[in-house]
Amino acid sequence: MLATVFSDMQPTLLDKEEIDITNAQSVRDVLMPLQPDVIINAAAYTNVDGAEEHKEDAFLVNETGVKNLGDIANMLGATLVHFSTDYVFPGTQAEGYSEADSPGPAVNVYGQSKLAGERALKESGCNFYLIRTAWLYGPNGKNFVDTMVELGKTKKHLSVVNDQFGSPTFTKDLSQFVRSLLEESEPFGIYHGVNTGSASWFEFAEMIFTIIPGMQVDVKPVSSAEFSRPAKRPQYSILKHTKGPEFRDWKEALREYLGK
Ligand SMILES: NC(=O)c1ccc[n+]([C@@H]2O[C@H](COP(=O)([O-])OP(=O)(O)OC[C@H]3O[C@@H](n4cnc5c(N)ncnc54)[C@H](OP(=O)(O)O)[C@@H]3O)[C@@H](O)[C@H]2O)c1
Questions:
Q1: Residue 218 forms part of a structural domain
Q2: Could you tell me if the CB of 239 is within 6 A of ligand 1?
Q3: What CATH number is associated with residue 16?
Q4: 209 within domain boundaries
Q5: Are 185 and 125 in contact (CB under 8 A)?
Q6: How many angstroms separate the alpha carbon of residue 118 from the centre of ligand 1?
Q7: Residue 214 in domain
């Protein structure tokens, strides 16, 4: 979606085969000749359960990788846009977290590595937009909405966790947010980039099946304890968006994504 929203500016798109952000030399060799004004880092180690066993890999990408990009941005005088996550917060505040709240301690390795990345970004001294986002869905890539829609085609009953709360967010809205931060020259710093409102995974699933006509799926609310996973999840990872351009309500964004 980032590529689509910025397509008129002909951005240089780089994947892991073209740039390894964990390798400072690779980062320099690729980015120096391009002399970018803006670097947007959407690369990360995002396997939340896998990170429990592969801690070094998670920190290498999410901390060292961010340090390397921060250093080159600093050297080039470029602005670095970097994405972080609701998982940097412990998830104990039912009302959620705003940009002014101090993050940590994170409850799992992925969150710890992303928090280390936030610190590395700040220490690099570059101009940055650090955008914490959450519960993303959109075209391309695996996401909860597509998974529910696929399951809904074959299943009549689904069990979905009802004791974890977050901020479902459409990647189109997030990408437009990034663009407006840059275009409006909003102050550098930390932003929460999420659609307005919050839901549990159960409520999110119910809304998906409410929006899609004819998909008769009985969604049963269950507790996290019934779904044992390697990484602990924060209970309340709602992000409060209080700075920068407005986001629409998550249900309205979801309706657009589902074409309704
Ligand atoms: N998805 C969410 O719900 C969510 C929620 C909160 C925050 N975020 C944050 O949003 C950002 C984007 O997330 P996403 O869901 O789009 O992630 P994603 O689908 O997992 O994509 C991450 C990309 O980074 C690449 N990558 C991994 N290691 C790399 C390296 N050393 N050098 C260069 N590229 C590398 C991956 O390549 P390979 O696939 O080839 O490994 C992959 O293409 C991340 O910072 C994530 O932490 C996401």
A1: no
A2: no
A3: 3.40.50.720
A4: no
A5: no
A6: 15
A7: no
Q: Is the CB of 59 under 6 A from ligand 1?
A: no
* pTM (2 d.p.): 0.97
Distance 45 CA to ligand 1 centre (A): 6
**Is residue 220 within a helix (H) or strand (E), and if so which, with residue range?**
strand 218-222
99, 191 Cβ separation under 8 angstroms: yes
Distance CA 137, CA 257 (A): 9
Task: Please give the residue range of the domain that contains residue 99.
Answer: 2-202+224-257
Distance, CA 135 to ligand 1 centroid (Å)? 13
CA atoms of 56 and 52, how far apart (whole Å)? 10
Q: Is 106 in the pocket of ligand 1 (CB under 6 A)?
A: no
Q: How many domains does the chain have?
A: 1
Cβ of 61 below 6 Å from ligand 1: yes
In this predicted model, what pLDDT tens digit does every residue of 203-251 receive, in sequence order? 999 999 999 988 889 999 999 999 889 999 999 989 999 998 889 999 9
110 an active-site residue? Answer: yes
Which of these is catalytic: 110, 129, 191, 257? 110
135 CB within 6 A, ligand 1: yes
Domain for residue 27, yes or no?
Answer: yes
Distance CA(132)–CA(231), nearest Å, equals 20
Instruction: Write the pLDDT tens digit of every residue in 18-55.
Output: 999 999 999 999 999 999 999 999 999 999 999 999 99
204 vs 158: CA distance, rounded Å: 13
